[in-house]
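For consistency, the fold was encoded as tokens, which produced the following:
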Amino acid sequence: MKTGFYSPSFFDIRLCEERHRTERSGSPFSILILDISDLTDSLQNGTEFNIHQIKKVITNIVRESTRDIDIKSWHDHKTLKILMPGTEKSGADVLAGKLEEMVSHALETSFGIKNSFDLKKNIIITSYPEIIRNSVTRPENKRENTRALNTEFNSHDQMTLVCPLYLDLSKKPVLYELQKSIKRGIDIIGSLIGIILFLPLMFIIAILIKSTSPGPILYKQRRMGFLGKEFTFLKFRSMYANCDEKRHREYVKDLIKKKMIKLIAAQGISLYIK
């Protein structure tokens, strides 16, 4: 696109893809949201021409201040959203500071708007997965929290509605609750059937693990699941418990050494035959 801006639907698609990538890799990303509705409403002659010109100026500033990989979009004509892959909150804060300075200067010089619109209060930055880690902690000083979206979520639905990371999930179809209940029922019934069918095999595997090496039978790990909620992942332990990484390095070195010896021997035999 000539302006580097995309439609809201494409923005939501890329947001969903980026969230799934982060849930797998842990690589962060940030979303910057700028709401100019207070600004447009406060204009004395708030014509469409003035609003259009303000958006055009902000669009040019954002295009010059962001990277090519950043996804930019105007939502509802008064809300600017910027998706920044691979960017932590500290990096998004730098962009926010730059936009505050440049947009404030442009509004003053081009439209004569000065001190009537607090740009800082209308910028929200959400960083993932940092938002999940901070969601259960409330800030001591709420005034210093104008840029960070740290909310204590009491349910998945509340989190979906509040957190802009899950906008694609908040657009629920009419039959969403019924579909969710059916899926949950299928998951539970399928899991119970699988456990019953493979229980003898799992019992044998547990005995083999316990008899061949000391340590717990199951390996536990905290992972990130649906809506960013952490859960305990369980599987049969396939490695030594409390194993030092030196053992793994020695094993790899020994394996490489043996392969090199076999390769040299094979080449020596080949040269001898020739």
In short: Strands lie at 29-35, 71-75, 79-85, 123-128, 218-224, 230-236. The chain has three domains: 8-170, 176-236, 244-274.
